[in-house]
Amino acid sequence: MSGKALVEPVEYEAAGAEVRAVYDDIMATRKTDWINNFWKVLAHDPVLLKRTWESVREVMAPGALDPLTKELIYIAVSATNGCEYCTYSHTASARAKGMSDAQFMELMAVVGMANETNRLANGLRPPVDPQFEPR
Amino acid sequence: MSGKALVEPVEYEAAGAEVRAVYDDIMATRKTDWINNFWKVLAHDPVLLKRTWESVREVMAPGALDPLTKELIYIAVSATNGCEYCTYSHTASARAKGMSDAQFMELMAVVGMANETNRLANGLRPPVDPQFEPR
Amino acid sequence: MSGKALVEPVEYEAAGAEVRAVYDDIMATRKTDWINNFWKVLAHDPVLLKRTWESVREVMAPGALDPLTKELIYIAVSATNGCEYCTYSHTASARAKGMSDAQFMELMAVVGMANETNRLANGLRPPVDPQFEPR
Amino acid sequence: MSGKALVEPVEYEAAGAEVRAVYDDIMATRKTDWINNFWKVLAHDPVLLKRTWESVREVMAPGALDPLTKELIYIAVSATNGCEYCTYSHTASARAKGMSDAQFMELMAVVGMANETNRLANGLRPPVDPQFEPR
Amino acid sequence: MSGKALVEPVEYEAAGAEVRAVYDDIMATRKTDWINNFWKVLAHDPVLLKRTWESVREVMAPGALDPLTKELIYIAVSATNGCEYCTYSHTASARAKGMSDAQFMELMAVVGMANETNRLANGLRPPVDPQFEPR
Amino acid sequence: MSGKALVEPVEYEAAGAEVRAVYDDIMATRKTDWINNFWKVLAHDPVLLKRTWESVREVMAPGALDPLTKELIYIAVSATNGCEYCTYSHTASARAKGMSDAQFMELMAVVGMANETNRLANGLRPPVDPQFEPR
Questions:
Q1: pLDDT score of B135 more than 80
Q2: Nearest by CB to B45, which of D3, D87, D109?
Q3: Are the C-beta atoms of residues C68 and C94 closer than 8 Å to each other?
Q4: Does C87 touch chain D (CB under 8 A)?
Q5: How would residue D2 be classed by pLDDT, with cut points 50, 70 and 90?
Q6: What residues in D contact C70, CB-CB < 8 Å?
Q7: Residue F81 has pLDDT above 60, yes or no
Q8: From the record, what ranges are coiled-coil (chains A, B, C, D, E, F) (predicted)?
Q9: How open is the CA angle B124-F62-D48, to the nearest 5 degrees?
Q10: What percent of chain D has pLDDT over 90?
Q11: What is the ipTM of this complex?
Q12: C119: nearest CA in chain F?
């Protein structure tokens, strides 16, 4: 157990102009006054930071799916992959967007069940039914 | 590449009473007249078949989350795990529940992004921010 | 690193009748006088708690495979998925059921080797030999 | 879907002395007269072939765990990882070592359940109970 | 086994201006005259197509790591995740960039070994040595 | 969160001759005077310790790929699998072999992108293009 990031987080005060511009956009978009550690470690590569933030901002914006549904999907993937940081950060985001305890527990139930039946299918290898074929 | 299941699918005609009862409930619940291969291979163990079906039925029923959102979450997990059968079957289910092309593509975008940032976090190991701690 | 669960564990004293009934059954089945944290967090959704416990109890009961073999399989999956909580809890369970150090280390050796050859196969993609086809 | 290996399988007749020696040992150990495709693709790197075979032979030999239990563990890992080739080959091996249909289905039930509870734990993050700490 | 994509691939002739612009850039960057199926399915969401292509182009460009090393890393991840399409496409790309058979087999050897020791560590849980802590 | 290994690390002083011989070879090969915890937990099974060490030594030796490239691949797999111990230990090894911050961040960018496109392919299932088929 370490608890230390593999690169030193870049604080706002120590950041260059390129990184600060991304940090400013993160805080403006999220209406917060702080930057979480995920972005601070990405900041070691300003191009990676900028691309990742702009992609996340675009992907998580309202569209055919609403922002809370998108957070639920993010949590589902993070729990499946066992990403600790992502589980804490996206659960916090989902709660901030109104996720109730009941929704969170149902989400977990679906994630658990999907992981179970995925392995039953991967272990028993039923052929894909013709009825499921895309048109 | 095989394409054959690891146990012979159990057809309705060849099934015992216990299995038929589950098959009947699947068709009644889904308002369909056929059973997909996933359940036919589980039927080699009627207890496993019954428990898995009853769990899926309970988990996927409307609740704090609506059935389409639950299907989207199922697809997200299945794509993350690379389960081919599950991807085809749950995408078909989601389309039957009204998933549009635009929703499907946005779902994929979120799943892709979550898998990317999960690994950036797992590789760089930023500490969980105190602000993300559950109360 | 957080160390706090994403929902508050539900203690026996604070639990409702439905949850207490499950807790009582867990302690009776396991002949212990305490409930581990996994069940306490599931208890936020009494239906999820009850279904998961009853499924685990049914799956892990003696059958065509003995209980220790089942625990070894549980550890194999948990180590493959990198689930920390599960690794600690099921290793403790397996030891309580008599797993020796030698058995544990051999289990790890098989798990390691399977994870290695799984990726050699997934990277080199040999076709499934006709001799391995199920009859 | 391709179905072709990413390197051409090396047939016995075309193999050099180093590879043939491994192939001979595989057939002698397994009391068979053919080599499966997994080894034939590894044979492009005779050092990798030899090390992998010798490791597998050592790991899968009878020890504190019996050979059938080891095959069950191999299948559990392969189904969890979704390795198609490995699922077919190790299920065939387990059947050759006497695995019954009932044992196979119970194995799948445990694998499914472990994958489910792994994600419930990874998503809800209960702290490891002190009682589970190794002595 | 299906073999059909879950959305119909978008051919150049049927594509709108936004998609054609990306297709043109892919072909110009790669000096080829065809588009592979991965991009054709992404094209159902022109924004996703454009973002993903521009990210891949940026990430895979020469930098502190050379393009062949980047392809090797891509294959390592794809084999670890068991992504069939990605394994075929990135192995083809790596060969086009000069990957030899010997390099490919060594890559597989490292991927296999890493997957093995990852699970030995995840199953046995050695604490991170202070010497490995980042400064 | 535990932080304790599931078997007690075996210190040099307490080790038998077989284990000491491996420890000596590790230190001689790496030109260090200490043994990291990974090997100390494997030492509970001297055969597993010896085989794993000899395999790692062989696989990571200079060959068609140079040692730093091999460490990058090891990190890519470890981040994909979410193995905390492995991420810290192999990042430290890569830095000792000269990995720069810029190389590390580009590695992370490729790992992230590969994990993203792996899931886009696994979710949308484009068929493998004939042009990617191995000759």
A1: no
A2: D109
A3: yes
A4: no
A5: low
A6: 106, 110
A7: yes
A8: none
A9: 95
A10: 96
A11: 0.97
A12: F77
Q: How confident is the model at residue F1 (pLDDT cuts 50, 70, 90)?
A: very low
Mean pLDDT of E77-86: 98
Question: Residue C118: which of D77, D103, D125 has the nearest Cβ?
Answer: D77
Q: What would the two tokens of residue A79 be?
A: 């729990």
Q: What is the pLDDT of residues F26-79, one digit of tens each?
A: 999 999 999 999 999 999 999 999 999 999 999 999 999 999 999 999 999 999
Give the nearest partner residue to F108 out of B84, B88, B123, using CB atoms. B123
pLDDT 10s digits, B46-71: 999 999 999 999 999 999 999 999 99
Token pair in block for residue B108: 């994929």
Which domains does chain E carry? 8-61 (1.20.1290.10), 63-125 (1.20.1290.10)
- Residue E87's Cα: distance from chain center in Å? 8
Per CB-CB distance under 8 Å, the chain E contacts of D2 are 84, 88
**pLDDT over 50 at D112, yes or no:** yes
Q: What Cα–Cα distance (Å) separates residue D12 from each residue in C37, D89, F126? A: 55, 20, 35
Question: Where residue E135 falls among pLDDT bands split at 50, 70, 90?
Answer: confident
Q: Is D2 on the interface with A (CB under 8 A)?
A: no
Q: How many CB pairs under 8 A join B and E?
A: 26
**Residue B1 confidence class, pLDDT cut points 50, 70, 90:** very low
State the Cα–Cα distance between residues C26 and C23, nearest whole angstrom. 5
Please list every residue in chain B whose beta carbon sits closer than 8 Å to the beta carbon of residue E133.
Answer: none
Q: Does F108 touch chain A (CB under 8 A)?
A: yes
Tell me: pLDDT of C82 over 70. yes
Residue of A nearest to C4 (CA): A88
Contact between residue E27 and residue E40 where contact means Cβ atoms under 8 Å apart:
no
Q: What is the DSSP letter of F44?
A: T
CA distance F62 to chain D (A): 14
- Residues in CB range of B110: below 8 A, 6 or more apart: A59, A60, A65, A70, A73, A74, A77, B76
* B92 vs A: CB within 8 A: yes
> For D35-56, what is each residue's pLDDT tens digit?
999 999 999 999 999 999 999 9
Mean per-residue pLDDT for C72-100?
A: 98
Please tell me the distance in Å from E83's CA to the nearest CA on chain B: 7
**Which one of E41, E77, E84 has the shortest CB-CB distance to F76?**
E77
> Closest Cα partner for F101 from A51, B116, A40, A6?
A6
Q: What is the structure's pLDDT at F135?
A: 77
For residues E72-97, one letter each, b for 16 or more C-beta atoms within 10 angstroms of the residue's C-beta and e for the rest, the string is bbbbbbbbbbbbbbbbbbbbbbbbee
| Out of E87, E116, E118, closest to residue C122 by CB | E87
Largest CA distance in chain D: 59
Burial of F8 (0-12, 13-18, 19+ CB in 10 A): middle
Measured between beta carbons, the chain E residues lying within 8 angstroms of B112 are 52
Residue in E1, E2, E49, E83 to test binding to A, most A beta-carbons within 10 Å = E2
Identify the three-state secondary structure at position F14.
helix
Cα–Cα separations (whole angstroms), residue D37 to A58, D6, D12, F67: 45, 12, 11, 30
How many Å separate Cα E41 from the centre of its chain? Answer: 16
Answer yes or no: do C125 and D6 touch at CB < 8 A: yes
Beta-carbon separation of E7 and B104 below 8 A: yes
Pair of tokens at residue C133: 């086809």
Minimal CA separation from A83 to chain F, in Å: 7
- What is the SS3 string spanning chain E? CCCCCCCCCCCHHHCCHHHHHHHHHHHHHHCCCCCCHHHHHHCCCHHHHHHHHHHHHHHHCCCCCCHHHHHHHHHHHHHHHCCHHHHHHHHHHHHHCCCCHHHHHHHHHHHHHHHHHHHHHHHHCCCCCHHHCCC
| CA dihedral sign, ordered E97, E98, E104, E107 | negative
